[in-house]
Amino acid sequence: MNLFKITEAEAPVVPIIISVPHSGTKFPAGIKKQYKKRMRKHLDDTDWFVHRLYEFAPAMGITVIKANLSRWVIDLNRDPKSVPLYNDNRLITSNTPVTDFYSNKIYKSKEFEPDETEIKRRLDTYYWPYYEQVKTLIEDRKKQFGKVLLWDAHSIRHKVSTIQKDPFPDMILGNNDEKTASPELITAALDGLKSGPFEVNHNSPFKGGHITRYFGNPENNIHTLQLEMNKILYMDDNEVTYNQDRAKEVQHVLQNTMERLIETLQQ
């Protein structure tokens, strides 16, 4: 099974890489039947269709890497030691979660939940290969351009009460309180996102996950930004199916944002 899919740039390459770590839906054959069938059928925590929103990117010279495995197999945006990303009492799943965001058990029984040996196996087999590939892409672009931006693309349900009581904003740009990217790139991203009709928050309630924090090193011209997006911006109100009309409006804003980021990187 391929752990990820890389869609290469179709135009002259630019120093931007888009990572989509949570829209995968596959399970390795050896562990697939350990999960509850009804849970595996719906995969509520999946960032459904996020990769489709960025289908325009290769034509702009942007390379896209998308994980194929479900985040319930391995969560690529968590600390490898499952150190919590936040300390405000929200529910935070581990790198090998045993529940969904609503604390529902995802395995058939406790005996199937990964122990330390299995967690290490999944990190070695599924987690670090993704990071190594992202690292290679970053190094290639930095060697060519002297700088690079990694854009980590996500989406989330309209409301998840175990994280916060209120519905989420439309879009949330995260950069660990402006530590993972230059002020110029942060400004360009915010201006692009705010060019549309959507409500845009900055580092609240999400500051960027482990991918953003792990790779971001603006002092070395490696910049990272995470975009968390409300699913109803591009799906139906029940967050089940892809809504073409809604998605087009989102894509217009995303493309405008990428154009601003490319321009900023070229300065």
**What is the makeup of the main sheet?**
7 strands, mixed
Strand order of the largest sheet: 1-3-2-4-7-5-6
| Residue fraction in strands | 5-15%
Structural class: alpha/beta
What overall form do the CA principal axes indicate? globular
CATH topology: Aminopeptidase
Q: Which CATH class applies here? A: Alpha Beta
Radius of gyration: 18 Å
Number of domains: 1
How many extended strands? 7
CATH superfamily: Zn-dependent exopeptidases
Roughly what is the average pLDDT, rounded to an integer?
97
Pfam family, one: FGase
Protein name: N-formylglutamate deformylase
InterPro entries: N-FG_amidohydro
Polypeptide structure, described:
It is built from seven helices and seven strands, in the order ββαααβαββαβαβα. The longest helix has 30 residues, at 116-145. The protein is 31% helix and 13% strand. The protein has a seven-stranded mixed β-sheet. The protein has a single domain (4-265), classed as 3-Layer(aba) Sandwich (Aminopeptidase). Strand 5 (171-174), helix 5 and strand 6 form a beta-alpha-beta unit. It has 267 residues and is α/β, with parallel strands linked by helices. The model has no long low-confidence stretch (mean pLDDT 97). The chain is globular.
Task: Write a concise keyword list for the protein shown above.
Aminopeptidase, 31% helix, 267 residues, seven-stranded mixed beta sheet, alpha/beta, 7 strands
